[in-house]
Amino acid sequence: MKNVSGSANNLTGIDSTLFQPNNRIGRNKSISKYSVQSEIIQFSLQVRTDSQHNIEIQNALTYFSQLDQDLKSSLIYNNHPISELSSEQATELVGENGYFGVDQTSQRIIDFVIKGAGGDIERLKSGREGILEGFKEAEKAWGGKLPEISYETLAKSLESIDEKIRENGGSVVDLSI
User: Over the stretch 143-160, which tens digit does the pLDDT of each residue have?
Assistant: First the structure.
């Protein structure tokens, strides 16, 4: 038996050289490919969560007067439960110039994806998929169809992400919402 520090035949049967930095990066392409895929999946999950949160708050504010107090208390905006808002404030937030209106909500989603992707086409596509998944999760959480403002926000977000994918030399096969 050779010495444990660098041998393939150590006491555990694990080749310790696999854990050396020069073997993980560059030489073992399957590990680095796995890392890239893992990062892309993580990015997609972050986009999904962010998109779902924005759409759910947008939906709650649209139906503000119809929500029960417990649900209003569980949803947070600006570090406060939305139950502390008046109906007028809620309406203003989803209005044309409101923080949860189509333009500002879609811009937050777009910025999150584009900045997070850094021009990488696969990350942009993954971010796009994350938006769609987040939207589906929001529909599921709210029991089906969301208000029209949410669909407008989705369409505007996807349009910008699709354009960025094309600008970077990629193509989007599924253009449906």
Answer: 889 999 999 999 999 999
**Residue in this structure with the two tokens 């960025």, named with its chain if needed:** 164
Contact criterion met (CB below 8 Å) for 58 and 156: no
CA neighbor of 94 nearest in space, from 146, 162, 129, 159? 146
For 40-88, write each residue's pLDDT tens digit. Answer: 888 888 899 889 888 988 988 888 888 888 888 888 888 888 888 898 9
How many Å separate Cα 95 from the centre of its chain? Answer: 24
Residue type, 159: E
Q: 80-81 and 76-77: which strand pairing?
A: antiparallel
Find, among 125, 124, 157, 144, the residue nearest to 54 by Cα: 157
Helix (H) or strand (E) holding 24: none
* Cα gap 22→143, rounded to integer Å: 51
CA nearest neighbour of 60 among 176, 177, 164, 138: 138
Widest distance between CA atoms in the chain? 78
Alpha helices, DSSP H only, in 81-120? 87-93, 102-117
pTM for this predicted structure: 0.70
Distance CA 100, CA 40 (A): 27
